[in-house]
Structures
1.
Amino acid sequence: MLTKFVSLLWSLFMLTSCVAQHPCDIVPGTFDSWMQGATSIDVVVVGGGASGLSAMKQFQGGKRKVNSVVLLEAQDYLGGRVKTVRTSIEATGKTVLTEDGAEWVHGGRTTDLYRLAKKLNGLAPDTKTWNIFFNRNNGAKASPLGYNIRRNLMKQCETKKIITPYFQKPDKGFGQCFIDRFDQTYKKLKAPAAEKEAWYFYNEQMVNKDQGTDTWLNISARDALNFRGADQWDQWKNGYDTLINYITKSIENSKLKLNSPVCRIHWDNESTDRVLVVTKDGTSYLAKHVLITVSIGYLKEHRELFTPELPTTYTKLLEDVHLGVADKIQLGWDKPWWGNKYLDLTMIWTEKNLPAEQEWLYGIMEFLSIHQYPEMIQAFITGKYAKLMEDLPEETVKSDIMQLLNSVMSKTLQKKGLSAVPEPIFFRRTTWGLHEWSYGSYNSYVSPVGADNGLKTRQPLAKSVKNSYNKQVLIWGGEALSTTRYGAVDGAMAVGKTMAIKIKNLLA
Ligand SMILES: Cc1cc2nc3c(=O)[nH]c(=O)nc-3n(C[C@H](O)[C@H](O)[C@H](O)COP(=O)(O)OP(=O)(O)OC[C@H]3O[C@@H](n4cnc5c(N)ncnc54)[C@H](O)[C@@H]3O)c2cc1C
């Protein structure tokens, strides 16, 4: 009897754990009760990341202030993919600051964001000096000549004249340009033949890193060319959330609702020309316009958010744009064990003999000291390797990465008289691919097929959806809509601002 009961419980457990749960699966109430209890409002902003917050700032300022507005954020903090983490370390009594998401003020020094960061005196001084290593995965020195291949090929493939033939229909993919030019460029660099395959793989992974893609052939060559702005490496000295706190200060507190996931959007109703927006706890709003700033990953994963379904013209576009996965793995010690400076370690895989369960490590190409901590390092991991890593328990990730560090830094350890890399006192890894409010990381990217289908710019994605009353009720926001700065904070902010102005005009 007891055995039967236990087995029943186990079956129930298996059944529930197999069905993916999402906080929005169950919402109390019915359409009628939500309609009855709804608060009338001009605008609902869905999502409190850089884009949604910039829109709110625009609504709250300028000539035509919009007062009847609320921002609904699913999580317990504002910033979304800008997420500064402060951890107190018991062993040292210090608090360290790390970034799960955005870290650098990219885009060059002429962007509004850079100017704002300067005005706020928010940027960290760049006084770092580095211990630079080029190592093979077994610890032997690698030739730095191979390293130049990346910059060299990037420069070529970002040149309009060179990349244009790659997107004359059919779009052949950004990676094809690198593939075609690798051999010749490698030869010119006079880098060792024995490392050629390893630098090829490095190069491929670094391009994947920029987008979070599984393969560099998945990135439309045209979309890659559209992206503008230098990868500036300026950092916020007190965390990226300095920016979020600054924007938030200009917004009335009562208009920002945390822990308020939007779970239902009824955008075309018989009884009203407005949109019914319902949050997880059944709170509802009847809005003239809804600005949706959730990630493209979330939109793809949760189409049931909308009733009726979104028009097929829009859902088709969603099939052509994707959100890549990139994660960070961070480790810290009380002092740097590799030298007395910040670590800059580039590694290449000259030997690929990992057991299947450790193959995710092939996605690691470098370790760099982070923020203002010479004793902390970070590795990026992207695409399919990031997804493999996310499925592993944290302890396994930690022990695998330590094993890799011990191997790749074996010569340095010997020189320092260390038998092994000391046990870290800080460890953190992100899991953006599995994140239930993001489903991906930085760059939304257009596939080659997507570009051929008409996504030559991001404009089609920005086209708002009209209801049966011919009202533009669903307005889109978020980084994915920026043709030139997708996947970046400044791009997300610019889109938020533009869309808020659009809504102001619609309300006028
Ligand atoms: C690992 C990583 C590193 C990065 N590095 C950089 C960098 O160095 N420099 C740079 O410029 N950019 C970087 N980025 C990219 C940058 O963070 C994003 O492009 C930008 O923050 C996106 O802002 P957003 O407002 O468009 O989207 P998000 O920040 O994703 O905001 C969307 C918000 O919507 C919320 N949401 C989702 N679903 C719902 C729902 N149903 N109801 C209510 N709310 C919902 C989410 O919780 C989130 O807060 C990085 C990102 C990652 C992940």
Note: The CA atoms of residues 406 and 421 lie 6 Å apart.
2.
Amino acid sequence: MLIGTHIIVGSVAGLALDNPLGALFLGLISHLLLDTIPHFDTVDDNIFTKRQITIVAAELIVAILLIYSLVWRHTGLTAPIILGSIGGFLPDCLDNVPVLKDYFRRTKFGALFHYWHERWHRKQKVISIAILTQSFIAALFLYLGYLVK
Ligand SMILES: [Zn+2]
């Protein structure tokens, strides 16, 4: 999944749980579960091209603006919300971001995590379906977050 979807779901999980460590754990679990849904998260075969960085940055900005206006603005950034969000994006941050991923994957835990992270991933080759799937999930969790706030 794209990073914005992971942050939205992790944030709402943290809001619902209202327990900082539980929220971090739930954010991590939500990341892995979301990755099993056929999706799209790169346009250039995991190479950080300018186009890829632009898409990720734009998607992240839109996601943060949406979750801020629908949820965070009302709840504030509580510890469970922040840690749920961190749990949501941390796996991709450690395992996919250039330079950081090189250090992470050299550790025993990082190598093992990368192996399983890749195995959990399901790609959707039809980009329009992939975008619709992610948009639906993001909208559903934004709605849930809006209801819970
Ligand atoms: Zn991932």
Note: The chain has one domain: 3-90+121-148.
3.
Amino acid sequence: MRILQLSDPHLLADPAGLCRGRPPLELFQHALTSALQQLAEAGTPPDQLLLSGDLCHDETWGGYARLRDLLAADPALPPVAALPGNHEHLLRLRAALGREVLLAPARCCLGQGPGSWRLLLLDSHCPGQVGGRLGSAQLAWLERELVAAERQGVWVLLAVHHPPGPIGDALLDSIALADGDALLALVAERPVARGLVFGHVHQHWQGWLPGPAGRPLLGCPSTLCPFPAVQPCPLGRADDPGGRLLELGETGEIRHRLLRWDLPRVFSLPTLP
Ligand SMILES: [Fe+2]
């Protein structure tokens, strides 16, 4: 089972608008095309697309409608799951995309029976705040899901927009997941949780979950723009947009591959004053 993770597109209502000096819609379209082409050429097409938050920077209906239309334009696209980020308007997100996209908090079943996987989508959005929080009700739901997965003999991958712990960047660590410690404590006691992926940090980052060894904790680059990298990029391309392929095995192992692509040769530059 393969998941393509793309993150932090920061779309706008204006299809020609710029965010951080770049055209988010054009770069998200380019990301989708580039990643799918790379995976097709490698013979590893994804079974699932995961968008890990900050979908719409200006939190407008128009931004979500662009995303909906872009996803609908490719009938060959695998099913899509998405998390809200801090840059989000939950009612507009749900109204525009709720029929086509599985939205957090939710359980995404990848296959059936023992050895299959559940992708648990967590919602860390806090209205009006840059940092995130899951809250006690969602943590209790997560614990029930992990217990049920153990009973059923299925593996779990967790996805949340905000990193659950510090990555080593003072600014980003101050706007992470407020109850990340509670999440990590829960996961440490549940070996059925095989890994956790997040967005928010706009860079490749790799660590490990506490508890049983060998369970990756992975930050994903943005399709729009990078933030200063804490760790060296394994591909030496920290300034390029990117995403990640996650390959989930029947014995609970997660293999992952960082994806990078060039910026389009020509994209709309901001108009100088
Ligand atoms: Fe972001």
Note: Helices lie at 24-41, 61-72, 90-97, 136-152, 170-173, 180-188.
4.
Amino acid sequence: MSETADLTVVLSWLQAAVAASQRDYANDPYDAYIFGVLAGWECEENHEHGPTCKGQTLMSTLAKTHGWREDYVARLREHRAIVRAALDDSARPDEEPTT
Ligand SMILES: [Zn+2]
């Protein structure tokens, strides 16, 4: 339990660090991957995505720019989902798991 808490503290710190940075994370393919995992390039609102959503076409632009294959983008999205789930869980420590 405390191991998970420690990991989410680290992830949360890294996420804040990349979000606050002046660095252009889209420019370099490895930077772009790191930003994509920690902060996400795509809209993460729970709604029907539309043309006004953040980064709706950004991922495909990044994939084109950096020559990312479909499975690479899928892995990035999977890694992002794992980080996001870990941070979402830590944001609600008092909530009981619904099983
Ligand atoms: Zn959206």
Note: The first helix runs from residue 2 to 20.
